[in-house]
């Protein structure tokens, strides 16, 4: 199973032509290659790749982009799509809600982790508790009223640098943050307006419907 390495993350952003925020706060700094070079595709001929993409190519890029933003593998993404089809409501919105309510995603969205990759690291190392019990499954599907906390060693590690300390940090309305305890509670399911507009779920549906 392929893994996204630290060195390949910037290349993925350049491939998609936009920031995927795979390196957390570094993506907001002047060190980001997108800031330095613009959205130029990787490789020595990146600037020359001007061939107009096909409809299939556009749909594929939309799917790949979403998959990379959430850090899931191809089989996982396909399974999320199949599950979303079985739920009531809009298919595209259901898909995004399933991805957004993964444990690693909520940990990142809440500001308790700097990136989704850091979320996965915290979880796999046993530093994350859900409803008081350690949980080491990044893909765990959170439910309303579930509460996430970090262990003391992790809180000590991030307490001075966490995003939740920033004055302009804003938490989406479906999450309730307890700053002193470094914990977050899922009080509702996210709506489409709560989820990044960088993803075009309609193109993803078109990709799977072809």
TrEMBL record:
Magnesium keyword on record: no
Gene3D superfamilies on file: Ribosomal Protein S4 Delta 41, Chain A, domain 1, RNA-binding S4 domain
InterPro entries: Ribosomal_uS4 (IPR022801), Ribosomal_uS4_bac-type (IPR005709), Ribosomal_uS4_CS (IPR018079), Ribosomal_uS4_N (IPR001912), S4_RNA-bd (IPR002942), S4_RNA-bd_sf (IPR036986)
UniProt-listed Pfam families: Ribosomal_S4 (PF00163), S4 (PF01479)
Entry keyword annotation includes rRNA-binding: yes
Single biological process term from Gene Ontology: ribosomal small subunit biogenesis
Domain Small ribosomal subunit protein uS4 N-terminal: 4-100
One term of GO molecular function: rRNA binding
RNA-binding S4 domain span: 101-159
Family named by the database record: Belongs to the universal ribosomal protein uS4 family.
Classification lineage: Bacteria, Candidatus Shapironibacteriota
TM region positions: none
GO CC, alphabetical: small ribosomal subunit
Keywords, alphabetical: Ribonucleoprotein, Ribosomal protein, RNA-binding, rRNA-binding
Protein's gene: rpsD
CDD domains the UniProt entry points to: S4
SMART domains on file: Ribosomal_S4, S4
Known partners and oligomeric status: Part of the 30S ribosomal subunit. Contacts protein S5. The interaction surface between S4 and S5 is involved in control of translational fidelity.
Protein known as: Small ribosomal subunit protein uS4
SUPFAM superfamilies to which the protein is assigned, alphabetical: Alpha-L RNA-binding motif
Top-level lineage group: Bacteria
Task of the protein: With S5 and S12 plays an important role in translational accuracy.
């Amino acid at each position: 199973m392929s893994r996204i390495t630290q060195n390949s993350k910037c290349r993925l952003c350049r491939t998609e032509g936009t920031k995927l925020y795979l390196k957390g706060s570094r993506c907001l700094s002047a060190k980001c290659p997108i800031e330095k070079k613009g959205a130029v595709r990787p490789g020595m001929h990146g600037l020359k790749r001007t061939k107009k993409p096909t409809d299939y190519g556009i749909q594929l890029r939309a799917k790949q982009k979403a998959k990379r933003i959430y850090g899931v593998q191809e089989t996982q993404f396909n399974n999320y799509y199949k599950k979303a089809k079985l739920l009531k409501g809009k298919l595209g919105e259901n898909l995004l809600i399933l991805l957004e309510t993964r444990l690693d995603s909520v940990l990142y969205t809440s500001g308790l982790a700097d990136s989704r990759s850091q979320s996965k690291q915290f979880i796999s190392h046993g530093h994350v508790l859900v409803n008081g019990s350690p949980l080491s499954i990044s893909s765990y599907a959170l439910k309303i009223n579930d509460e996430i906390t970090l262990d003391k060693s992790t809180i000590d590690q991030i307490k001075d640098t966490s995003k939740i300390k920033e004055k302009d940090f804003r938490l989406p309305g479906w999450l309730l943050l307890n700053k002193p305890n470094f914990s977050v509670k899922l009080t509702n399911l996210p709506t489409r307006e709560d989820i990044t507009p960088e993803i075009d779920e309609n193109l993803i549906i078109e990709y799977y419907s072809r």
